[in-house]
Amino acid sequence: MAKSKKKAETIFLVCEETGQYNYSLKRKPGGEKLRLKKYNASLRKHTWHVEKKK
C-alpha cells in the first residue's frame, strides 16, 4: 500500500486583539495550533496571532 501524502493547507493568522486576518501561510495539517507574536499594522505594535482556517 502506498502512503497518502498530506497536502499543504492554507491557514490564516488572526490578531487576538482586533480579530483581523493579517497573515496567511501554508503548512501541513496536524500538529498543534500556531500562536505567534506578529506585527499588526493597524495598531502599530506586535500582538499575539492565532491560527485559524477560513
TrEMBL record:
Superkingdom field: Bacteria
Matching InterPro entries: Ribosomal_bL33, Ribosomal_bL33_sf, Ribosomal_zn-bd
One example GO MF annotation: structural constituent of ribosome
Annotated GO biological process: translation
Residues in the signal sequence: none
SUPFAM superfamilies recorded: Zn-binding ribosomal proteins
Keyword Ribonucleoprotein: yes
A Pfam family reported for this protein in Swiss-Prot or TrEMBL: Ribosomal_L33
A GO term from the CC aspect: cytoplasm
Family that this chain belongs to: Belongs to the bacterial ribosomal protein bL33 family.
Name by which UniProt lists this protein: Large ribosomal subunit protein bL33
